[in-house]
Amino acid sequence: MLSTTETADARGPQAPDAGSAPLSPTDRTRLRRGRHKQRADRAELYALLDEGLFCHLGVVVDGAPRVLPTAYGRVGDTLYLHGSTGARSLDTGGEVCVAVTLVDGLVLARSAFHHSVNHRSAVVYGRPRVVDDEDERTAGLRALTEQVAPGRWDAVRVPTRKEMAATRVLALSLAEASVKVRTGPPVDDEEDLALDVWAGVVPVRSVFGEPEPDPLLREGIGVPRHIAEHRSP
Amino acid sequence: MLSTTETADARGPQAPDAGSAPLSPTDRTRLRRGRHKQRADRAELYALLDEGLFCHLGVVVDGAPRVLPTAYGRVGDTLYLHGSTGARSLDTGGEVCVAVTLVDGLVLARSAFHHSVNHRSAVVYGRPRVVDDEDERTAGLRALTEQVAPGRWDAVRVPTRKEMAATRVLALSLAEASVKVRTGPPVDDEEDLALDVWAGVVPVRSVFGEPEPDPLLREGIGVPRHIAEHRSP
């Protein structure tokens, strides 16, 4: 399974600047346990983040953890998040942790102990910056929209001044990030290989169905190419 | 999108006991914003948790949030988590937050602002209890295994004493939990309905592929029924 045994545990020093730096520059993004493979290639981080549809954002509110599923978008080495200006969860001013997890398969071993999940997981730590510059705010919201459906931003009505004023845009550097990947068959104990138990992997994937038009859609508007060709199985 | 604008923000009082209590007993599990529907039915919480494959666990380590994808299992009103006895992340002794999120569709509106994601999301808050009783520890690990593949526990080698000793099992009450659901077409502004923009929902679902036998699988062991019939598309 996605076991907590396979996760970095130590708190590290401050992260260096992002840019072309390799991943895992701090102690807490370095894996301590487990057989899962840690990737050190920034391109793998980008690919994973670009494939994900949403993230889980961790914040601390009044000393307790809070985890929110939320949208994100990436521009270079920056992750953009957004929320209402009235939402307190994004108003903590403190550090956040963003996790994007893609599941690829159920790993069914001969022993309960060695069950696992094939997955790709990115975790980003940092203190987000509130974006004030209007151009960057627009670029961030564009990235958030494009994350859900590439090509969408140019096809829709862009935000009004009022909508922009109601939206907080946050920028999180990808400087301190880790990527963890588990692939392949189960890893059973040698002595269990003789057991009369089926073992293997059941692939899991996310697929997109036929687009369902809004009941209020005006007649004569067909499914645009950026949707029809998007994320097809 | 899964906007942070749609999430409860206030910290609440202590939660009452779980059992047959309705959901949302505290301020922080009560939704403050957005059009998404909050569910108050405990059966919906169970159904969502039973459908999920893994959760995102939020903890606070040295004052900073940490989010880990990890396995879970449910028995009644208790969620079980596990990890290595050496993993520091589960050793905080403090509160945790567990989120299980299922994505059902991309909500493509006529305006960028009203884009969203149809989803079902459960969030559980609490202070997990380290399980000492061996029977409950076994029941918890059984639930964790069955979550990934129902029927699996009875088909595999159960944990040895040594494996049990290396595993920490935690129990988290479902007393303080919320369920949030967004369904249906986009909700555009009235004046945008006339725009020449396609709007609607692209369904998203998780599907399971053909089981891939472990290369080390002994000859003559076919895919068992509990796998073949499991989570078929």
UniProtKB/TrEMBL annotation, chains A, B:
Region named Disordered: 1-36
Pfam families tied to this protein: Pyridox_ox_2
Domain of life: Bacteria
InterPro entries attached to this UniProt entry: Pyridox_Oxase-rel, Split_barrel_FMN-bd
Protein name as it appears in the record: Nitroimidazol reductase NimA, pyridoxamine 5'-phosphate oxidase superfamily
Organism for this UniProt entry: Nocardiopsis flavescens
